[in-house]
């Protein structure tokens, strides 16, 4: 993902906000999960590996390290890494937060 200087600065500030007062990777993951759940307009139509589904929640894995999207598709719930969720509406409110998370996991 190519990020402009303007977005880089914005994403860094958003990452600082999402992880404020987080002292380890578990707290950072939890901070991101809470922030994304608050900022994304859930439920949200999305594509998972090219197929339409619905993002209904954001959570962490059992170890508290990875941030996961809780997806419903065909009356089944699955959990996948949130960075693999492709939002259908590219103009939806809160989408920058997902971009900031993707930037943060690649750049720390």
Indicate the structural class: alpha+beta
Number of domains: 1
Low-confidence stretches: none
Gross geometry: globular
Q: Portion of residues in helices? A: 25-40%
Number of strands: 5
Instruction: Bin the strand percentage.
Output: 25-35%
Number of helices: 3
Averaged pLDDT: 93
Element string (H = helix, E = strand): HHEEEEEH
**How are the strands ordered across the major sheet?**
4-3-2-1-5
Largest sheet: 5 strands, antiparallel
Structure summary:
With 108 residues, this protein is of the alpha+beta class.
List the helices and strands and how they pair.
Elements: H1 5-18, H2 25-39, E1 44-48, E2 51-60, E3 67-73, E4 76-81, E5 86-87, H3 95-107
Antiparallel strand pairs: 1-2, 1-5, 2-3, 3-4
Helix pairs in contact: 1-3, 2-3
Write out key terms for the chains shown.
alpha+beta; 108 residues
Could you please describe the fold and organization of this structure?
The protein is α+β, with helices and mostly antiparallel strands and 108 residues long. It has one domain (5-107). It has 3 helices and 5 strands; from the N terminus they run ααβββββα. A 5-stranded antiparallel β-sheet has the order 4-3-2-1-5. Helix 1 packs across helix 3 and helix 2 packs antiparallel against helix 3 (95-107). The longest helix has 15 residues, at 25-39. The two termini are 14 Å apart.
């Amino acid at each position: 993902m190519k990020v402009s200087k303007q977005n880089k600065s914005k994403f860094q500030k958003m990452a600082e906000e999402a992880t404020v007062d987080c002292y380890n990777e578990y707290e950072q993951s939890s901070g991101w999960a809470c922030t994304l759940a608050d900022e994304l307009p859930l439920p949200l139509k999305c594509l998972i590996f090219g197929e339409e589904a619905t993002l209904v929640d954001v959570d962490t894995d059992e170890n508290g390290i990875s941030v996961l999207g809780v997806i419903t598709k065909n009356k089944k719930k699955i959990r996948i890494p949130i960075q693999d969720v492709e939002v259908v509406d590219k103009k939806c409110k809160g989408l920058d937060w997902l971009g900031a998370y993707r930037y943060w996991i690649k750049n720390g």
